[in-house]
Amino acid sequence: MRRATDHVIAGLEARISSGELAHGERLPSERALMAEFGASRSVIREAIAALSNRGLVLCRPRHRPVVRRPGYEAVLEVTGPAVRQLLGTPEGVESLFRTRIFVERALAREAAANARREDIAALRQALEANRAAVEDTPQFYVTDRAFHRVLYEIPRNPVFPAVHEGFFNWLRPHWVKMNQTVAINRVNLAAHEAIYEAILARDPDAAEAAMNRHLEAAWGFVRETFAEAG
Amino acid sequence: MRRATDHVIAGLEARISSGELAHGERLPSERALMAEFGASRSVIREAIAALSNRGLVLCRPRHRPVVRRPGYEAVLEVTGPAVRQLLGTPEGVESLFRTRIFVERALAREAAANARREDIAALRQALEANRAAVEDTPQFYVTDRAFHRVLYEIPRNPVFPAVHEGFFNWLRPHWVKMNQTVAINRVNLAAHEAIYEAILARDPDAAEAAMNRHLEAAWGFVRETFAEAG
DNA sequence: CACAAGTTTTGGTCAGATCAAAGGATTTCC
DNA sequence: GGAAATCCTTTGATCTGACCAAAACTTGTG
């Protein structure tokens, strides 16, 4: 039992993945599509909504939907609303943060074992940006994020940068609520330095341990904020 | 700029998370909802579709939507269609498989370091099921999956079992296409034994290495199948 | 050539109607 | 009495046609 909507979805999906509808191009108007597929606007509209939820088109209210090349970022973006549901509860936040810790410990190990020369250069550059921004809390957040980003790029697997985006976007609300101070920035800077040193020394165990200390401490800060906020 | 649909979505979300609409209960009929929210069926329908995409309700064609408690499985399920888009390309499959390898290497290490007595018992039980099913290929697939599942449960973080579901469901089509033979089953069984031994010996490095060999070999089998299929 | 005003297109929403499947309620039959 | 077949109401899926306000496009003007 197929719904008419499914037919339209399949048709549009085909036209997108065949490249007939190119990335960045606007979708035909709803009325044009109803002529093309011989369906009413209801089903066209429903199909477009479905494509939007699959990350194939980007919909803004009152604007023509825009075709997007499916990518890992799109997947994470689509996942956003569902994840936010889970972040309503403290346990949800903790689960997600601990997942992040798990991933980044492994990333630190991976970096120590396999980082190339250019990776290490990128890491050092990010570290210097940290140092330069240590007095400027908002800017430090940006460079902090960039430092971790480098680690997600080292495996050269496009899934990881997308996961990085996901973690940071989902957890940001809980992060900015935190009391960010220059003192904490210094702690984090020192932690980054330790991680960098361990990676430079090609010592996976030390890198993992340093990352673990860093993120467990960060989690402690976040949890404190929770406790205060009640 | 708010759309009427957003209002209905918010209203239903509230009624769900407040428990007024309990898990497993059926949503009111579309006609009832349009009376309640003073909106036309179009917006009600669009709102329900949106909730479905957020994993808050489960929709089957021609059936009344059913309320679901938001959970990590729901998130992964919602992500499914988008991920499947990416799996259309061989690079997509490889990225996802390598992500799995990355995660399970870390899980093996984690297990060796922190598995409790009951975890190890579960692992041994799963391993024995592997042994018993080694001649029965379809059954071996089931027990194979169960063995890996145990590893995802060891960190006691609800995100991981959901990720396990995701990996297996997404990759299953590429797995079943593979030439599964008793010979391959034996290879995998031996690999599982090696992983188990390393975890039992509390040797993270050996556990990670064993897992790595296991999954790289598996990836080799999958890739061969690709090459044959063209 | 840029910018403002006017016109057409188009997404968001509504109202009302049809149809076939789902879900009960009812009756039939062992 | 309980399982199975049958009837009837509800309800999801789809269609038609319409209206409005915001976008997108066109045109006139400085």
TrEMBL record, chains A, B:
Ranges for domain HTH gntR-type: 2-70
PROSITE patterns: HTH_GNTR
CDD domains per record: WHTH_GntR
SUPFAM superfamilies listed in its UniProt record: GntR ligand-binding domain-like, Winged helix' DNA-binding domain
Record's keyword terms, sorted: DNA-binding, Transcription, Transcription regulation
Keyword check for Membrane: no
Domain of life assignment: Bacteria
GO molecular function: DNA binding; DNA-binding transcription factor activity
Protein's name according to its UniProt entry: DNA-binding transcriptional regulator, FadR family
